[in-house]
Amino acid sequence: MTLIKQSAMQLQPETIAAVTGPDPLEYVTSCELPMPWATFTLHAFVESQSGKEHLALTLGDVSDGRPVLGRIHSECLTGDALFSQRCDCGAQLESALRSIAAEGRGVVLYMRQEGRGIGLINKVRAYRLQDAGADTVEANHELGFQADQRSYSHCKPMLEKLGIVSLRLMTNNPRKIDAVKQYGVAVAERVSLIVNRNPFNRRYLQTKASKLGHLIPDEDV
Ligand SMILES: Nc1nc2c(ncn2[C@@H]2O[C@H](COP(=O)(O)OP(=O)(O)OP(=O)(O)O)[C@@H](O)[C@H]2O)c(=O)[nH]1
Ligand SMILES: [Zn+2]
């Protein structure tokens, strides 16, 4: 395994008010983050009013104007940190980081919108309803939420702060591409990110494809 080590990107703390509207986003600081595949730079952002914290991981020179291999990842504590097999999030995150390390250049925005925006506790409630037979969309509706409550309004200012002009976005979700484009993020290309089909997430992947429009070929669910 080649461990890529690059010097951390140096950026100044800044409140990025103009582009984010009522809840300005602050760029706080950065540090090196050695990971199994490369040493990334970890950038810390915070929403001024809500206090919600978001992260970005960069590798290499992402501010040279060329499209950057990138992932806009929504927090999934159960999948990203606890190895849950109910979804594909943890495997997608790892795969994205590996691909970026292989290219020596890229970005992950780690957005703290757990449970497609309903929060961790409500996601556990939704999982319980799924244990009783609901699918992921029905469970959200039963709890009084929309199927997907995420907002991508902070992505553009985060990318701008990092000097990133456009993305080669790793995702299977066309609605995510439309949503980030609405906020001015340029997506030069979609890069498919299909990983970790298993008996526990089969129905989740099927529902994502049939009800949420994800581009997952039949043979992968
Ligand atoms: N409410 C709810 N959220 C879930 C469930 N399973 C995963 N999530 C959350 O869904 C988010 C990930 O969304 P996905 O729809 O899996 O994928 P995506 O980010 O839209 O699309 P990709 O870019 O292709 O990964 C994370 O915030 C997870 O915590 C579930 O059953 N219910
Ligand atoms: Zn997940």
From TrEMBL:
Signal peptide: none
Positions of GTP binding: 71-75, 92, 114-116, 136, 171, 176
UniProt cofactor note: Binds 1 zinc ion per subunit.
Keyword flag Transit peptide: no
Pathway: Cofactor biosynthesis; riboflavin biosynthesis; 5-amino-6-(D-ribitylamino)uracil from GTP: step 1/4
Enzyme class: hydrolase
Domain GTP cyclohydrolase II: 28-191
Record carries keyword Zinc: yes
Entry cofactors: Zn(2+)
InterPro entries the record matches: GTP_cyclohydro_II (IPR032677), RibA (IPR000926), RibA-like_sf (IPR036144)
A Pfam cross-reference name: GTP_cyclohydro2
Catalytic activity annotation: GTP + 4 H2O = 2,5-diamino-6-hydroxy-4-(5-phosphoribosylamino)-pyrimidine + formate + 2 phosphate + 3 H(+)
EC number, UniProt record: 3.5.4.25
Active site (catalytic residues): 148 (proton acceptor), 150 (nucleophile)
UniProt binding sites for Zn(2+): 76, 87, 89
Keyword annotations from UniProtKB, A to Z: GTP-binding, Hydrolase, Metal-binding, Nucleotide-binding, Riboflavin biosynthesis, Zinc
Protein family per UniProt: Belongs to the GTP cyclohydrolase II family.
Function of the molecule: Catalyzes the conversion of GTP to 2,5-diamino-6-ribosylamino-4(3H)-pyrimidinone 5'-phosphate (DARP), formate and pyrophosphate.
Protein name: GTP cyclohydrolase-2
Organism of provenance: Noviherbaspirillum suwonense
